Amino acid sequence: MPEPSPTPATTAFSSARGAVISASNLTKKYKDFAAVDGISFEIAPGESFGFLGPNGAGKSTTMRMIGAVSTRTSGDLSVIGLDPNQYGPEIRSQLGVVPQEDNLDSELKVRDNLIVYGRYFGLPHSYLGPKADELLDFAQLTEKAKSRIDDLSGGMKRRLTIARALINNPRIMMLDEPTTGLDPQARHILWDRLFRLKEQGTTLVLTTHYMDEAEQLCDRLVVIDKGAIMAQGSPSALIRQYSTREVLELRFGSNRNAEVATQLEGLAERIEVLPDRILVYSDNGDAAMQRVIELDLNPLTSLVRRSSLEDVFLRLTGRSLIE
Amino acid sequence: MTAMIDAPPTPHVNRPFLLPSLYAGNARSVMERGILSTAKTNWLIVVSGFFEPVFYLLAMGIGLGSYIGAIQVPGGHTVPYAAYIAPALLAVAAMNGAVFDSTWNVFFKMNFGKIYDGMLATPLGPFDVALGEIMLALARGFVYACGFMIVMQILGLNLSWTAILALPSVLLIAFAFASFGMGITSYMKTFQQMDWINFIMLPMFLLSATFYPLSVYPEWMQYAIQAMPLWHGVELVRGFTTGLVTSAMLWHVLYFVVMILVGMTLTTRRLKSLFLD
User: Fold this and answer.
1) Which residues of chain B neighbour A168 with C-beta distances below 8 Å?
2) Hey, is the C-beta of B219 within 8 angstroms of any chain A C-beta?
3) Which of A70, A76, B198, B267 is the most buried (most CB within 10 A)?
4) Which ipTM did the prediction report?
5) Which residues of B are less than 8 Å from A93 in CB distance?
6) Each residue of A198-220: pLDDT tens digit?
7) pLDDT tens digits, chain A, 323 residues: what are they?
8) How many interface pairs between A and B have CB atoms less than 8 angstroms apart?
């Protein structure tokens, strides 16, 4: 293998302010449609950063631009100090990419998927052999090393995709909807693995439309809708800023919800009427419930819970996240 | 995670002089992947590809050839019929191998396997992918060609020492067809469209002075055939195996060099627009 030459990738690693990714007015247009419409953000090394938004919000497009597989229409973008439009191969050599749709190589066995992928990075076989075994262990797939890809479950494929993305010891992990389509148990295993990576100092950049995922994994996130950033901050700060501490969920049956809503006005800071339920935002959910009982409204079901990012999203966009 | 492997090598990219953002100088890894997957899944297809031209040679060259005898070629020489069609079949084998690998194989990887999406998330650029896939097609074409040359030698159909030069010629032909085939395949979205490739290949195979000299056609048709790549391949290989080498063969070489340049440009651009939008 040829000797590594000093590339700009090694000389210009640390950009201004130490951000590992920084975007300013980043825009991607397809003809007249702006999939990403002038967003700005910075991601620090070791940070776990999330893009939260519904399908079609522009999350994946942003991820593709960061991953140097999509060219921006305008604005500035710097990844590990380099411009992705010009230094695609250099940037990609430092990333671990977990795409939304699994694209494992079904013509190769499980372990060969890792080895061959590592070869794409120009890594030597002597390194890849032990590394593949280590990653199979990490992904709990050691027994499946010689299996065909088609024989793996959805959760196993996801774990293998994550293992594959780690073959080059990436500085940044890019995860696009990492747990979509997985059952709860598989999701928790995956979260555990991602959390370990975070502990080791890997920068995680992920998109999700799951609140619990964002709350579990993200130090900081941006709420993104229709290609624009609606808000940014840590999950708890966003909840503090855009929602109340607690939420009272009431169900009166789909016919009565709208009618009862008028009577609930003034009861709490804010009320959202959804097709199937009414959300009453109050710092004290039990007190709000007490007043509902005093008004003799008789909900079919009631529930007091803590505010989540779902409520933040609803507040910011007037829409629910999963439609 | 358990014990870390000590001193992990950092992946690095040789920034090549040409096409820096499209090429990471690592087409070899794409080729390695192809060899590994072919070795495990498609080896039967690979073997069958060798026998096809051999059967043609036995049926047409030896069988039909015993009735035809010798054939007159431009320049006044006569060549036994089997020795006349054998180099053409060699050129056709090179074309078929290259086209199969660069069209059907590529079509599946592009549209079903999502393999290129995975590759292009790594340092590899579209030029690495195109070059790697084409080298794989060439490697296979070369193995076929060597096998066929051995058969020709045994049957006494190599009439001159220059026949050895047919091997690099076959590589050139295969490179041209593979680079072009991959570019064209990138436009294909359905199986019906893929059938168009066969629709072009079959008449080209039958009419490109493969089984009889071009002089049987009216003049306009001769020009049409001479515009097609296979005719250049047939003439080039035939010149070497029969020993009737002329300076005009340089034009055939030039034809393929241009075809390779156009094909590689087309393929790289298409891969870029498809996967690095």
Assistant:
1) 11, 122
2) no
3) B267
4) 0.82
5) 11-13, 24, 122-123
6) 888 899 999 987 878 888 889 99
7) 444 444 443 333 344 458 999 999 999 999 889 999 999 999 999 999 999 988 888 998 999 999 999 999 999 999 999 999 889 999 999 999 999 888 999 989 999 999 999 999 999 999 999 999 999 998 999 999 999 999 999 889 999 999 999 999 999 999 998 888 788 888 888 888 888 888 888 999 999 878 788 888 899 999 999 999 999 999 889 989 999 989 999 998 877 877 888 888 877 888 888 888 889 998 888 988 988 888 888 888 999 998 888 888 888 887 766 55
8) 132
d(CA A187, CA A179): 6
Domain boundaries, chain A: 8-239, 244-306
pTM of the complete model = 0.83
Q: How many angstroms separate the CA atoms of B138 and B171, rounded?
A: 6
Contact A158, A130 (CB under 8 A): no
Of chain B residues 124-153, which have a CB less than 8 A from chain A?
124-125
Please list, in sequence order, all residues whose beta carbon lies within 8 angstroms of the beta carbon of residue B63, skipping any fewer than 6 positions away: none
Beta bridge partners of A173: A96, A204
Q: Which of A5, A33, A107, A169 to mutate to test the interface with B (most CBs of B within 10 A)?
A: A107
Asked whether the beta carbons of residue A93 and residue B32 sit closer than 8 angstroms, the reply is: no
Fold of A8-239: Rossmann fold (3.40.50)
Give the strands of the sheet with A33-43, arranged side by side.
A33-43, A21-30, A74-79
Which CATH architecture fits A244-306? 2-Layer Sandwich (3.30)
Of A4, A70, A119, the CB nearest to B32: A119
Residues with Cβ < 8 Å from A70, sequence gap 6 or more? A28, A61, A64, B276, B277
Q: Which of A72, A108, A121 to mutate to test the interface with B (most CBs of B within 10 A)?
A: A121
B201 touches chain A (CB under 8 A): no
What DSSP string describes B159-189?
Answer: -SGGGGGHHHHHHHHHHHHHHHHHHHHTT--
- Model pLDDT, residue A10: 36
User: Rounded CA gap, B203 and B207, in Å?
Assistant: 6
Chain A: residue whose CA lies nearest to B41: A107
